[in-house]
Amino acid sequence: MKPFTRRSWLSASAIAALISSVPSAFARGGVASGSTPWRNWSGGVVANPEGRFSPASEDELASYFSKTSGVLRPVGSGHSFSPLVPTDGHLVVIDQLTGLLDHDKQALKATFAAGTRLGDMGPILESHGQAMYNLPDIDRQTLAGATATATHGTGIDFGCLSSYVTALRMVTPAGEVLDIDADSNPELFAAACVSLGSLGVVTRMTIQNRTPYRLLQNSWVAKTEDLLEDFDNIAAKYRHFEIFPFTHSDYSSALSTQHTDEAIDNPSPSVEEEAGFAQMITQLSQVPPRDRLQMVNAIMSQTPPSQRVDTSYRILANVRNTRFNEMEYSVPIEAGADCLREVLRTIIEKEIDVVFPLEYRYVRRDDTWLSMSSGHEDHAAISIHRAAQFAHNPYFDLIEPIFWKYGGRPHWGKVHSLDARALTKLYPHFRDFQEIRASLDPTGRMLNPHLSKVFGVRT
Ligand SMILES: Cc1cc2nc3c(=O)[nH]c(=O)nc-3n(C[C@H](O)[C@H](O)[C@H](O)COP(=O)(O)OP(=O)(O)OC[C@H]3O[C@@H](n4cnc5c(N)ncnc54)[C@H](O)[C@@H]3O)c2cc1C
């Protein structure tokens, strides 16, 4: 078997060909017929909207709300795994609302149109002497879409992206244009920073940034138990730290990231590495889960460490070509390691046939109402994945109750089965959010069946 590194394992473009690519279909400019189905990134969530609209201004958006009736859902880049977006009513796609609108050199803040993709923000900000503090695993999401679900990266010192929002503008179902910030309306601001797209359509956001910086990232493979034992010490040493535990294995891939002044050195994974990875996946999937432990351990223990250096936004976000579905729960940080251990043990005991690694990372607490890390505690986010061509429900259904046992909150943009009754217990401000939602959208125009369940509203 050819050698492979952690990067080839995770970038996985070598097996992209195994899984068909399913782009979302949007009409640009004006209203389009709803005959083309809409699909999310993984292809698992599908809708046939009656109308699609791509507004170029807040006025156009307000008049679309008043001209139409029925459900209206905003969509970003369709990278959520949960059915937040689908509707057979109206889809509002914000791909004409993009780019930098304003920036403040002194305060290191920048205002972007809400449809700007995270990946387009890095170079723009850099040219104005700014950089985002953190990024999620990929950067294809829109700013409004990512913040609507409290999308986060890793790092005990960094909150989710929504916690860096300092102001936003939103068009409500009544056609009002609201400028919202923490000084003028703290409650509405705390609700609107993580809104699940249920309060109105966000058109612009201002975010707090910092000066540009360079990062050195190291990856290595080690025993999961050793990494978990020492997790807090390692996490305290680096700006970012996370692990990707392998299923049916004693090993994880570890990833640490820190500031550096070293020269940029960020080669793409070689063809040989990718080939080695594809070969390993094929071989592994032919072995019954109960016989995999020794094989995976042998491969993992031979994986060489690797290192790369680049501008922050080129290190923090990755390219993920392999389509998958994902469930992620955030548990209070002190429960994280035990919860992860139980998930890994269950995968072995139940002989779940899954090769995709898990992901385990820390996120700092914040003051928004519905972020998974809101409140007084930092959280550990634990993700499980299944390649998109396989049914994910049997696996996710077995694991989800473990997350509940440890007080987990589901990622809004990822697969979960919780309803309003359960969610009310998890979020002190869930009812406050509901009041604001009902006052801005009294007729439920922004509720699809998934959101009706999440908010406990009969439609
Ligand atoms: C490969 C992959 C990797 C991922 N990695 C991470 C990760 O590292 N960390 C993490 O936390 N999450 C991660 N996610 C999840 C992803 O970041 C979230 O689901 C995010 O919300 C998707 O953003 P989007 O722009 O695609 O929005 P969509 O999925 O299109 O929409 C998400 C929500 O935003 C709302 N919305 C969109 N635009 C607006 C608007 N203008 N106004 C109001 N509401 C709006 C929608 O109605 C919906 O409720 C990942 C997803 C994928 C597919």
Please provide a written account of the structure.
By secondary structure, the protein is α+β, with helices and mostly antiparallel strands. The protein has 15 helices and 19 strands. It is globular, with a radius of gyration of 22 Å. Residues 10-34 have low confidence and may be disordered. Bound molecules: flavin-adenine dinucleotide. Flavin-adenine dinucleotide (FAD) binds next to β5, α4 and β11.
Number of helices: 15
Low-confidence sequence ranges: 10-34
Integer count of domains: 3
Quick one: CATH class of the largest domain?
Answer: Alpha Beta
How many beta-strand segments? 19
Tell me, rounded to a whole number, the average pLDDT: 91
Cα shape: globular
Topology at a glance:
Elements lengths: L5 H6 L18 E4 L4 E2 L6 E2 L3 E4 L3 H10 L4 E4 L14 E4 L6 E5 L4 E5 L4 H10 L15 H6 L16 E7 L5 E5 L4 H7 L8 E8 L5 E10 H6 L1 H7 L2 E6 L5 E9 L11 H15 L6 H10 L4 E6 H5 L7 E9 L3 H14 L9 E5 L15 E9 L5 H13 L3 E2 L9 H7 L3 H11 L8 H7 L4
Parallel strand pairs: 4-6, 5-6
Antiparallel strand pairs: 1-4, 2-3, 7-8, 8-11, 9-10, 9-11, 12-14, 12-15, 13-14, 13-17, 16-18, 16-19, 17-18
Bound molecules: flavin-adenine dinucleotide.
The site of flavin-adenine dinucleotide (FAD) has 33 residues, from strand 5, helix 4 and strand 11.
